[in-house]
Structure formats: C-alpha cells, structure tokens
Amino acid sequence: MERTALRRRLTWQVGTVTEVRQETATARTLVLDMPDWPGHLAGQHVDVRLTAPDGYRASRSYSIASAWNGGGVELTVEQVPEGEVSPYLAEVLAVGDPLELRGPVGGWFVWKPEQPGPVQLIGGGSGVVPLMAMLRAHADAGSQAPARLLYSVRSPASVFYLNDLKEVAMSEDVAITFAYTREAPPGESRPPKRIDAELLKSVAFQPEDEPTTYVCGPTPFVEAVADLLVAAGHDPARVRTERFGPTGGPR
C-alpha cells in the first residue's frame, strides 16, 4: 500500500485546469482536476513540468495553496521576470488546458490538525502560499489551536488571497497581521519597513507559548526572520523554514 502511494507521488500525472483566479497583477491561482491525486498535507509542494513542441522540458516546484478535501489542487504562481515556467503559468495557461504535476513532496514543512500547541505562520511575498494551505486546513478541520499569520508584503496591491484572509480573520482562533515593506495603506499605524524584533514581540506568539512556527519566503527573508526568532528565545527545533529563490525550494 505504501509503495503504491509512493509510486503515485513520484509519477508525472496530467491534470486539467478547471478555474483560474487572478490574485494580483502578476500572480494567479490555478485550480486543477487531478483524477489520480493521492491527497496532500498543508505545506507540501509539487513539481510542475512543461514540454515544448521541440521536446524541450522545464520543471519548477510550486507550493500547494489548497487544503486537501477531496477536491481539486490549487497552485498560486507569481510570474518571475525572464522565467522559463512561471510566465506561461501566470499568463497563458487557460481553463481546459492540461498540466503535468508530480507529487506531493515534503514532510517537514507541514501542519497537521492533530498537532498540539499554537501555530505561528510568517510569510514573505509569495511565501504565503503554503501558509494559506495551512490556514485552510485549520478551518476545514475546525481546529481550535490558536493560529497567527504575519504576512510581509510590499504593498496592498501585492496581497494574495485578500478576501480569503478577511474571512479567515473572522475566526476567534486566528489573527492576521500585515507588514508592508514599500507602501502601506492609508491609516496604517506602522510605516513601511521589514519585520523586526519589535513587531515579532508585539504580534507573534512568544517563546513561552511554545508555538510551532513556519517561515516561508525568499532565502534572505527566511534567514533574517529565523535569526530574529532564535534571538528572541524561540526553540530552533520548533522553527520550520521553507525558502525559495536561485538556491531555494518551491515557489
């Protein structure tokens, strides 16, 4: 049984795009019907492969944005300038088109409803994607574990999942804070700047709360936030990181 599940995860499968949702000017969510999908955990990612007419192939890893509830698989893709894969996914791929996936992949950067204790999520830019899957899984499971999201983003126009986040924030068990780095909305009390120790102390769970913390984003962002957490006294073993970029992992 386990071998069969592993073989399915390692085999390329062809899914069909059933819906496309624009998230920002440069990012959109693709909803895929995957007939033989084995299911996934919140925080896992997939490999996506494109094949050109001349046979040339290119593949990239993308975090899964949806919780697994037996439905489709959602990927949110932000276009990378001069990228090989993201421009096609973010601009060209349409409803009814096929797309090759392999996965799900990953077992460390995942959240499960049965995990004890508070959940602290910290995302930078498109690093919010797997964290959104965790928030959706949290809601689907009816989890009462306290959860907080600290979302670092350039400007209000760059926010992914705005309506979904507003809905999630209505839960008494979930708190969401935005940290704008380039342009803040009118009335925002904090000027545009990066996440710092002061902000973490005011809005994130503290070491004595013993949270499991998930940090995802570009490599410099992840390293800076992880350093701040450890310096504040958080147990490094409870800080899980996922990074992307030239030497990083999934987007």
Automatic annotation (TrEMBL):
Keywords: 2Fe-2S, Iron, Iron-sulfur, Metal-binding. InterPro entries: Cbr1-like_FAD-bd_dom, FAD-bd_FR_type, FNR_nucleotide-bd, MRET, OxRdtase_FAD/NAD-bd, Riboflavin_synthase-like_b-brl. SUPFAM superfamilies: Ferredoxin reductase-like, C-terminal NADP-linked domain (SSF52343), Riboflavin synthase domain-like (SSF63380). Gene3D superfamilies: Nucleotide-binding domain of ferredoxin-NADP reductase (FNR) module, Translation factors. Residues 10-111 form the FAD-binding FR-type domain. The keyword GTP-binding does not apply. Its cofactor is FAD. CDD domains: FNR_iron_sulfur_binding_3. The keyword Signal does not apply. This is Ferredoxin reductase. It comes from Kribbella sancticallisti. The lineage of its organism: Bacteria, Bacillati, Actinomycetota, Actinomycetes, Propionibacteriales.
